[in-house]
Amino acid sequence: xxxxxxxxxxxxxxxxxxxxxxxxxxxxxxxxxxxxxxxxxxxxxxxxxxxxxxxxxxxxxxxxxxxxxxxxxxxxxxxxxxxxxxxxxxxxxxxxxxxxxxxxxxxxxxxxxxxxxxxxxxxxxxxxxxxxxxxxxxxxxxxxxxxxx
Length: 149
Ligand code: GTP
Ligand code: MG
Known about the structure:
Number of domains: 1
Helix content: 40-55%
Strand order of the largest sheet: 2-3-1-4
CATH class: Alpha Beta
Order of helices and strands: EHHEHHEHHEHH
Subcellular location: Cytoplasm
Keywords: ATP-binding, Cytoplasm, Kinase, Magnesium, Metal-binding, Nucleotide metabolism, Nucleotide-binding, Phosphoprotein, Transferase
CATH architecture: 2-Layer Sandwich
CATH superfamily: Nucleoside diphosphate kinase-like domain
Number of strands: 4
Radius of gyration: 15 Å
Enzyme class: transferase
CATH topology: Alpha-Beta Plaits
EC number: 2.7.4.6
Oligomer: single chain
Catalytic activity: a ribonucleoside 5'-diphosphate + ATP = a ribonucleoside 5'-triphosphate + ADP; a 2'-deoxyribonucleoside 5'-diphosphate + ATP = a 2'-deoxyribonucleoside 5'-triphosphate + ADP
Bound molecules: guanosine-5'-triphosphate, magnesium ion
Shape: globular
Largest sheet: 4 strands, antiparallel
Number of helices: 8
């Protein structure tokens, strides 16, 4: 199995949606292996979203992400990148399917409540950016027997 970096953005935390969102990942059979509540600094936000630095929405994105605490997570499971992107839904919440997190809980691109890594390479980069090595716990859960064939 692989690991992905997931972040509940300031709107998710401030709207008290943390429990509901984490329940979706747990119910699916994915496993939380690291978690941290933090208010992201401007530097960290700019580093995390570096690929978008020339986009017209970059400044408002950085303002949004640093505006209040976020919940950073590392989540483990088989094909975890694509499984999580599916659970999260399309970037634009108005176009995201109902049943996805963005489709069910959000309205605007600039308030789309959650981030998830888009590849194993970005997951590695993002996990290192937000967590020290000893903050990611590689444990096994016995009910994985009932999740995976
Ligand atoms: P992340 O998981 O947050 O990286 O979202 P994503 O991978 O679905 O989208 P992408 O990496 O392309 O964009 C990063 C974030 O920038 C999005 O989640 C949005 O919050 C924001 N964003 C992307 N495109 C737009 C846009 O056209 N307008 C605005 N206001 N924000 C945008
Ligand atoms: Mg992205």
